[in-house]
Amino acid sequence: MAIMCFLAIIILTFLLGVADCAGTEGTGVLDTDTDCPSLCNCEDNGMLLRVDCVDLGFAELPSKLSVFTSYLDLSMNNLTLLPNRALSNLHFLQELRLAGNDLTDIPEGAFSGLFNLKVLMLQNNHLKQVPSKALENLRNLQSLRLDANHIASVPESSFRGLASLRHLWLDDNALTEVPVHALAILPTLQAVTLALNSITHIPDHAFANLTSLVVLHLHNNQIQSLGERCFDGLLSLETLDLNYNDLAMFPMAIRALPNLKELSFHSNNIRSVPEHAFVGNPSLVTIYFYNNPIQFVGKSTFQHLPALRMLSLNGATEITEFPDLTGTNSLETLAVTGTHISSLPGNLCDQLPNLIQLDLSHNLIQHLPSFRGCRKIQKIDLHQNHIHEVPADTFLELTGLRTLDLSSNLLSSVPMEGFQDLTHLRLAGNTALRHTLPAQRLPKLRVVEMPYAFQCCAFVAGPGENSKYPYIWKTRNISKDLVTGKEIHIVANQGTYLKKNNP
């Protein structure tokens, strides 16, 4: 029977081609006025038809559907039932959208005849179980959305026959466990989301047969524990999302993921990240683990991650030494804030030559190394430390440096070497710093924050003066540059200026 249907499709395609070659006017043989269901919007796509019936209040399927329909969108209607074989003549249909209806069940023959269907969207309905009988013969289906339903369990046979399935959405349902056996028969899967459920544990070998899986979303569950081998077999996985769960321990099971590039486990209850935590993940590019009560991070935790671009360690109060980042030389953004670090390694820029942004605020740093090797750096934030001296060579040869924040330290003087390209300089809160800065040494400066208001006088042009350094200076809390219209915010015991644009 299936062979005869396939032959019929070939014959129809041939006849269409003959008709078109014989001089059929227009873009194809279809007439969108006569082949389009009432109220729907149809578009002629060569020999096939795209049918859009979104949000039209339909309580049943439209009766007039062209056999040449390749795309059918019936989302946001009031459908409660799909009659048996109602779509069986749509052999060219590749995408069917039924999201946002009132479907509670789908009968066995609802999708009969849809041999070419690749995308099926059933999200935002009222399904309580996977319509496995209806899905069974959709052998070319690649994408299936079942999210935002009321599915509480997924039996082993739920996806039997879906030999080509690549993308599966089961998020925002009522699942309490990973459907291990149902997933095991889908080796072609590339992306799975089980987010927004009530899963509490991921067992060992939960995804063992999914060797082609690239993306796995498990966020917004109630996951408290992970089996030590729960991610075994995921040799192709690149993205793992464990955000917003109840994990108290670092997920050591990630060591089985050699191709992992993006790891997210923020907003959990993890208190420490152990030494060599990422030893099995040399391909990591980004790690997100903020909003955890992390107190301790091993000194060698982030070694030998050559692809890592961004690292943020905020509020880990038990860190007393700067992390050893040997072999992690592609970092572009590094933030280590709110720790008890008091010194920085002298070879920091030898290890991190590609740094663009460096945030070391809210630490106990007393002395600074030279940043001369960080030639790509654009922003350095060192505010709220214990720095009492800046050596003359600290910022030399940093031609890309635009923003420097040394506010709230113990400085009594600041060298001008390396400041010629700065546009933003913050020195407020250094109460021992009382001298003015030479404006001619800061030709590109646009914003400055100083401990005392008088220190900004060097940047202020008198009324009517044709100054070489035309700046606007106001002493009210909020003022506006009449040329640019930009607001200037003044902080207590601090002067701020905004350089005026020349006409």
Automatic annotation (TrEMBL):
Signal peptide (UniProt feature, chain positions): 1-21
Keyword Ribosomal protein assigned: no
Keywords: Glycoprotein, Leucine-rich repeat, Repeat, Signal
Source taxon at top rank: Eukaryota
Protein name listed in UniProt: LRRNT domain-containing protein
An annotated GO cellular component: plasma membrane
InterPro entries: Leu-rich_rpt, Leu-rich_rpt_typical-subtyp, LRR_dom_sf, LRR_TM_domain-containing, LRRNT
Species of provenance: Coregonus suidteri
SMART domains documented for this protein: LRR_TYP, LRRNT
